[in-house]
Design goal:
Length: 396
């Protein structure tokens, strides 16, 4: 451990009680840099795209793991490639666009040309390069990846354990949230920049929805017999129970809250399979929220909406109406989140030094298998975070 890392870790000591979290963790620039090193660039898997976003040969998408820009491509043979989005010559970002289709990518600085498999194909003036120069040595740097139910996970640590070990028992709820087989087609995106630390965004729970979100009251989604399952690494799968809406006459289009081909008793899925991203299936929507930290005080989230490949036009349009109106940063059932995230960030220095998780935190409750409207599951992730970061806990 170097002296700088020791200094950062000395900044924070967790309280003796497992349900208390120091607020300084949500605003420290030094701790954010350590998070990038230990968590985002460490031996962990991050969702970066769904194959439904790059369906055709030549399709590509750019993204970030922490602050590292990456490029995800659909190869000519139908396979997938994941690379550092930087020219191997001088490190210029190769592709600035979010999505597109291209058989090759050219660096604007010195016109080095790569195919969409990351191979260097053209180099101006290489007849005057060092004698040992070889194009094969200057391809785009590859990133290790695995695919689960169409969801592409990547890691910057080649020594990371297999993805299956990270997902554990949340794998099946994640599969269900992605339509069961992952055969999805992209409908579109909604994108937002939250004025909050990435952990403020991640600290979501089942306690707040019926209390914060007005639509939950209007739609009679105020409680149920769902279950929140948590893995040892703190990753969460909340399978909740949503009753059919008793009253939808406040909507001009009641189909926005219809269940079609889905039994509401089977629940609604909110699955966090990584540090900062969520898979969500409410009603007939397939949604995945790709999250990116943007410094200590901002979090960027791309809400990607999908239909199933087997959907007819009517069902695809139904999913599109629900997706564009119910979820997302301005959605009927999620509109209030951004304001609360901002208020939390703005008030970090007010009140107590710690934030607390209390709902369901009782001796007779198992934090690894809690109720639909509890927040006890959050303490499992925070304990994992504390250990991964190397922070100590005060004695009882």
């Amino acid at each position: 451990m170097n002296a700088n890392t020791q200094f950062i870790q000395d900044l924070v000591t967790f309280p003796a009680k497992a349900n208390a979290v120091p607020k300084t963790l949500y605003e420290s620039a030094e701790i954010y840099q350590l998070e990038l090193e230990r968590l985002f660039y460490g031996p962990h898997w991050h969702p970066v795209a769904h194959t439904g976003e790059i369906r055709e040969s030549g399709d590509y998408k750019t993204f970030y793991i922490g602050e590292v820009p990456i490029l995800i491509t659909r190869l000519a043979d139908g396979g997938v490639g994941v690379f550092h989005n930087a020219c191997a010559h001088r490190g210029t970002m190769l592709v600035p666009e979010v999505r597109g289709n291209a058989a090759e990518f050219q660096c604007p600085y010195h016109r080095w040309l790569y195919d969409n498999g990351g191979n260097l194909r053209g180099v101006p003036g290489d007849d005057d390069f060092p004698e040992d120069f070889c194009k094969a040595d200057f391809g785009l740097r590859k990133i290790r990846f695995e695919i689960f139910a169409g969801l592409i996970f990547a890691t910057l640590d080649d020594n990371a354990a297999p993805l299956s070990e990270q997902l554990g028992e949340i794998a099946e709820p994640l599969r269900e949230s992605l339509g069961g087989d992952g055969r999805l087609k992209l409908l579109g995106y909604q994108k937002v920049m939250y004025n909050a630390n990435w952990k403020t965004y991640r600290d979501q729970d089942g306690y707040h929805p019926p209390l914060l979100h007005a639509a939950f009251k209007l739609l009679n989604w105020q409680g149920g017999k769902g279950v929140c399952t948590v893995a040892d690494n703190g990753l969460i799968a909340l399978v909740s129970q949503l009753a059919a809406a008793k009253n939808s006459d406040f909507l001009k289009d009641p189909s926005l809250v219809e269940f079609r081909g889905v039994d509401p008793s089977k629940g609604s899925y909110v699955v966090c399979p990584s540090l900062i991203s969520f898979g969500t299936k409410h009603l007939d929507m397939f949604n995945f929220r790709f999250g990116m930290p943007r410094g200590p005080f901002k979090t960027e989230v791309h809400w990607a909406y999908f239909c199933h490949e087997d959907d007819d036009e009517e069902m695809a349009n139904h999913r599109l109406r629900q997706s564009s109106n119910l979820l997302g940063p301005s959605g009927l059932v999620s509109l209030e989140d951004a304001a609360v995230f901002s208020r939390i960030q703005n008030a970090l220095k007010a009140g107590t030094e710690n934030a607390y998780f209390l709902k369901g935190v009782r001796k007779d409750k198992d934090p690894y298998k809690s109720g639909q409207n509890d927040e006890i599951a959050n303490i499992v992730w925070w304990e994992w975070y504390r250990k991964a970061m190397g922070f100590s806990r005060a004695a009882a």
